[in-house]
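Extended Data, panel c. Modelled sequence:
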Amino acid sequence: MGQAKQKKVTRRAILETEERCIYCAAAPSTIEHMPPLVLFLKRQRPKGLEFAACQECNNGTKGADAVAALFSRISQADQDPFWENGGGVTLRHTVERDAPGVRDEVFDERKATTRWMRGRTGVLTPKAVIHADGPLVKAYLDVFAAKLGMALYREHVGKPLAMEGGVQTIWYMNSGLSEKMALAHLSILPIGGSLKQGTFTAREQFAYRYNCDEKSIFAALIGLNSNFHVFLIASSTPEKFMLPLTMRNISATMNFLRPGQLVDHLATNTLRPRRLLTPP
């Protein structure tokens, strides 16, 4: 069977086995890759973690995917060849198109600061400090983290997160995840996961540790290109597990979202329209 035909068969099989979108109650009509293609170098991604989604959730949250991909590539390295090739240019254009206002918010000259930091040679060099603490970045990354939780819950529990369920998320940029906090998360997450297709793996770009009862709760720590991390707990009965939890010291990057809230959360907190317009 040819590759194109195989892809069509796989798409049909996924859609036929799902009664609803993994993100809301609507009927599914598209295939969602989570994590998305935009996060991988040259959009080359092993097969797996493909889910049924409605068009509004798939298209209406792609700005969140682009912003997450952007921050997964921003590092403290002296030089990153990614930003010097076509991939970096394409990603910047994608963010400007799908997440309007984010670039201006992040690179606001009024908030720009410089910090002297040691590079690979040990010599102190000036580094531009990015303040990604604005409302647009938070809204997009909150939604992306919730998408990850809902997708991985479906993968490991075997059914979409219940509409009355929810996902609590905490995300960390760059070196924001301390060793102490990482060890605290990992202490309850014994199982490793990633994407693999034959000998083609993507562990350096996407890997996670998780725990799951295979019935109603899933928890994970996910690493994306080593620069962006998400800790999440998804449950179909959040009240049973006292979700959402309160953690004051990291409340700025915490959030709790339920299925059906993703698109409206972006519409309320970003510059995107509330509903997608379809051509006549």
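The first helix runs from residue 3 to 16. This feature is highlighted in the accompanying rendering.
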